[in-house]
Write a structure and sequence with these properties.
Number of strands: 10
Oligomer: single chain
Radius of gyration: 18 Å
Number of domains: 2
Bound molecules: glutamic acid
CATH superfamily of the largest domain: DD-peptidase/beta-lactamase superfamily
Strand content: 5-15%
Length: 310
């Protein structure tokens, strides 16, 4: 693994000169303020070493990457019953699609699209206030990353709330279908804040260890994620983690991954590494353009793939 740092440096240098960088998300106004010039990458290996390059220490809005952490919490809380309220199939539709929900009677296709993540927020909200639920989510991620400095970017949370009509429509529809236990505004308070968590690539790669090295976690110290749940989350990342670009990501990168519209991607090499990459410019389906390209090159150069080396 000695050349990993050199490979990351090379990739960061290559990304710095890329002229096609995608477009920064603008539908959440606060995200539109971020420069597309950033690129960062961090890898945590099994031995605990952190390798990084570029803007790997700069916090960014993790957005939908938060969905793998809230899903993990819901699985620990409700177990297999989660799958009565949310499906496990790729949606083939945009992340904020409304049409599919009606056809599916308010049961979202999977927990990594907005509708599914809103149901997961509702599961976490049971018997708690929204603020206590948000605190728990933040504490879970801080613990997983071993970094109490991780926080919520309140400007992003407000920006999401102010422009969140589409998510409100999804939440109200799910509630009307009987699949939301709490009023839509309470559930969305949790959802908007989880999406507004800010993390650096180093922090995110450290948090992702729970999916790469499950048994390394001491169940008494860290909220445990069982090996079975880690496998389920990894499977969902592989099949559903990149919106309707999931098939292409699986085929080009060959690793479970979850992207967010802030330009971050968490990718997992089971048993070997947890990787976080960030570049804010998005491709046409909302995934980080350079993030996916960098992961493709890293996976290829390291021979990393869940399908075996090629
Ligand atoms: N907060 C964003 C939304 O709900 C998350 C989207 C994403 O990263 O996929 O629209």
């Amino acid at each position: 693994m000695t050349n990993l740092s050199a490979i990351l440096d090379d990739i960061a240098t290559e990304m710095a000169v890329e002229t096609e960088r995608g477009a920064v998300a603008t539908y959440i106004p606060e995200l539109a303020k971020v420069s597309p010039d950033h690129f960062g990458i961090a890898v945590v290996t099994r031995d605990g070493h952190i390798h990084s390059a570029g803007d790997a220490a700069m916090p960014f809005s993790i957005q939908s990457v938060s969905k793998v952490f809230t899903l993990s919490m819901a699985l620990e809380r409700l177990g297999e019953k989660c799958w009565r309220r949310v499906g496990r199939e790729p949606s083939g539709d945009p992340f904020n699609s409304i049409v599919q929900l009606e056809a599916d009677n308010g049961i979202p296709r999977n927990p990594l699209i907005n509708a599914g993540a809103i149901v997961i927020s509702d599961i976490l909200l049971a018997d708690r206030t929204p603020s206590a639920t948000i605190e728990r989510i933040l504490a879970f991620i801080q613990m997983a990353a071993d970094d109490a400095a991780i926080s919520i970017d309140n400007a992003v949370a407000c920006s999401e709330r102010d422009t969140g009509e589409r998510n409100m429509a999804l939440a109200h529809f799910i509630r009307a279908s009987g699949n939301l236990d709490h009023p839509a505004d309470r559930t969305l308070e949790v959802y908007f804040n989880q999406c507004a968590i800010a993390m650096s690539c180093v922090q995110l790669a450290k948090a992702g260890r729970m999916f790469a090295f499950t048994q390394q976690f001491d169940p008494d110290v860290l909220a445990p994620i069982t090996p079975q749940h880690a496998r389920q989350v990894n499977a969902l990342m592989l099949t559903c983690g990149h919106y309707d670009g999931s098939g292409e990501f699986a085929s080009e990168v060959g690793l479970p991954g979850k992207s967010g519209v802030g330009g971050g991607i968490l990718a997992i090499v089971p048993g070997i590494a947890s990787i976080a990459v960030w570049s804010p410019g998005l491709n046409a389906v909302g995934n980080s353009h350079l993030g996916a390209l960098a992961l493709e090159r890293l996976a290829h150069r390291m021979g990393w793939s869940v399908f075996g080396t090629t």
